[in-house]
Design a protein that fits this description.
The protein is 12% helix and 55% strand. With 215 residues, it is mostly beta strands. It has one domain (2-214): Jelly Rolls (Sandwich). Residues 1-19 have low confidence and may be disordered.
Length: 215
C-alpha cells in the first residue's frame, strides 16, 4: 500500500508539471492600464512611480506595482522567463512570492546605473536588497523558486538549463502563497515588460513523504 500511495503522488506531480499555468486565469493585484495576454505571453506597460518596499533604509513603504498571481499551498517549484525594455534606474521585472504586505520576495532583473542586475528583495516587515551585477545586457532571464517546508530557494538561468542559486530565505510554511510575474518602475514614467513560460510544479510534502516511508 505504501508503494502504491507514493506512486500515485509521483504521477500527480508529473501531470501537474506537464502543463504551464494559464496567465489569463490569474488575478491582478494593481492591474496596469495596458497589457495583453496571448499564447502564454504577458506583455505589460509597467506604470511609472510604482514599487514594492517596506521601511528599511529609505523610510517609506510602497505596495503598488502590477502583480499577476495565482495562489498555491504546499511545496512547489515555480519558473518564469522575463525580459524588458528597461529605461531608467530601478526599472525591474521578475517573479514575486507573497504571503501578505509584510512578507514577500521579489526577484528578477533590475536596471541600476546603466547596468543589468539580478536583484532580490526579501521583506519580513522590513525589506532588504541584494544584487548580482552583470557586465553585459541580456535579452531575457529565467527565474526559478523552490519552496520546501519553511524555506524558499531562488535561482536564475540564462538558458533554462543551468541554474545558479542566489538566495535562500525563510517563509512561513503550511500557508498559501501568491505566485506570479511582477514589475515596477520606481524612478521613471514606465517601460514595457514581457513574461512567458510561467509554470508551477507541485512537490510532494517532505514531512508527509517521510511519514509514508515509515508507516
Amino acid at each position: 500500500m505504501k508503494k502504491v500511495i507514493l506512486s500515485v503522488i509521483a504521477v500527480v506531480a508529473s501531470m501537474l508539471s506537464a502543463n504551464a499555468q494559464s496567465l489569463d486565469k490569474m488575478q491582478w493585484f494593481n492591474e496596469p492600464e495596458s497589457y495583453s495576454i496571448k499564447g502564454g505571453v504577458l506583455e505589460m506597460d509597467v506604470p511609472g512611480q510604482t514599487d514594492y518596499w517596506r521601511i528599511a533604509h529609505y523610510g517609506f513603504t510602497v505596495d503598488d506595482g502590477p502583480f499577476l498571481y495565482a495562489t498555491y499551498g504546499g511545496e512547489f517549484e515555480a519558473k518564469i522567463k522575463v525580459s524588458g525594455d528597461y529605461k531608467v534606474r530601478f526599472d525591474q521585472a521578475g517573479m514575486m512570492i507573497r504571503l501578505d504586505h509584510e512578507n514577500y520576495v521579489k526577484f528578477g532583473i533590475e536596471f541600476v546605473d546603466g547596468k543589468f542586475n539580478i536583484s532580490t528583495v526579501v521583506t519580513h516587515h522590513t525589506s532588504d536588497w541584494s544584487v548580482i551585477q552583470l557586465q553585459d545586457p541580456i535579452p531575457y532571464l529565467w527565474l526559478k523558486a523552490v519552496r520546501r517546508l519553511d524555506a524558499i530557494e531562488i535561482y536564475y538561468s540564462f538558458d533554462d538549463k543551468e541554474y545558479t542559486m542566489m538566495r535562500t530565505l525563510w517563509m512561513q510554511d503550511n500557508c498559501p502563497l501568491q505566485v506570479g510575474p511582477v514589475a515596477a518602475c520606481p524612478d521613471g514614467q514606465g517601460f514595457k515588460a514581457r513574461f512567458s513560460d510561467f509554470k508551477v510544479k507541485h512537490l510532494p510534502d517532505q514531512r508527509r513523504v517521510e511519514w509514508l516511508k515509515n508507516n
